[in-house]
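TL;DR need structure tokens for one chain.
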Amino acid sequence: MRDAGLANALDERLALAGISDEEVRRKSRMFARASAALARRPTLRLWVPGRIEFLGKHTDYAGGRSLVCTVERGFVVVAAARDDRLVRIIDVVTNEQVEIELSPALAPADGTWANYVITVVRRIARNFPGPLRGADIAFASDLPPAAGLSSSSALVVATFLALSDLNALGAHDEYRRAIANADDLAGYLGAVENGARFHTLDGDRGVGPFSGSQDQTAILCSRAGALVQYAFAPVCFERTVPLPHDHVFVIGVSGVLAEKTGGALELYNRQARRVHGLIDRWRVATGRDDATLAAVLASSPDALQRLREIVRDPAVGVGSDGFDVTDLVTRLDQFAAEALEIIPAAGDALERGDLRTLGELVDRSQRGAELLLGNQVPETLHLARSARSLGAVAASAFGAGFGGSVWALVRRDDVERFTACWEESYANRFPAHVDRATFFVTSAGPAAMTL
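>> reply
TL;DR here they are.
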């Protein structure tokens, strides 16, 4: 039986952090279920949310910027340290369980949620050698999986935070040399997922996508009731943008899975390879060694126009990457518009309360995803357009694309009517997805926390 005093204390901390009463009650039930699944009394409790990419479509790994926040749904985690190196993790919703050793030689388990856990455990063993303790960990999630809400990155963050706390990794010299704050930790965990080296911490096989650090940054660095604007590669805080108190998000989960495996992984990674194609051509033509597309465009006032000319120049040859001029120019134009124009202007519009301009800017971002990125599907296009026609001040698909979800910013006093109409419109247009589609309301929530 769960201790009533402890339960009340957890509920109070979640409420004080900015989570609504209804969601606090949901989390309380989830914590009780997770605690009951653990073989012994937990010594650690975590809340790790999913996230909304408000704006920032495929910008982070290119060194661009994003506006992000968390949702009030995510992972509750309970854990207790072991005296050996075994890590046992159970998903109490599905009753699936993973048992692995803290070892740098762990084999991947591609295509399963276990692979995210394995990737974290293997990287910890590689980057922080020495005596390490395993753990018994139980989690419950109310995030819809593969919906663009970053459930996979939330699991990565949850696994790392649990093992880091139980092993006091923050006291390790290796940790202190590379990770000084939450921004650094977000960058490191992004590198854990994509396999890259992070400062002095060696890289390893990631989970597959050529991803950046946007998701981890949102999960670790968000502020309740606001968006945070960050630039990436490296992670760099730019500003906090409060959201209007009389508006909330309605999330429409299309039911089209946005998985980063198989053919979908290739579609996702193609967006990153288009960026690499641009950088490669720039380096060949200029002799410079700019590391990211953002760095390329910041190198001179005319860099954007110069790069367009370089891409169109048949004399610039960099090998057979398979991209033609249209592939690269459209990717360049989408990135430049999203990262350099739309996001700064959208943040400014929110700060002055100009929701009409905000909606127009978000519409422009959504058109860029459809026409330039090419990562939208009919379901997400319909959700974004119908949300606007039903009265949302702004609406956009988010995440990797090729499925997933759409957020709509809606007046709080209109949310019941809007949600019912939006759901009905989607069901009428895509009846085959009714069983998988989900619609829920959320405020911008707090970052991950230890409770």
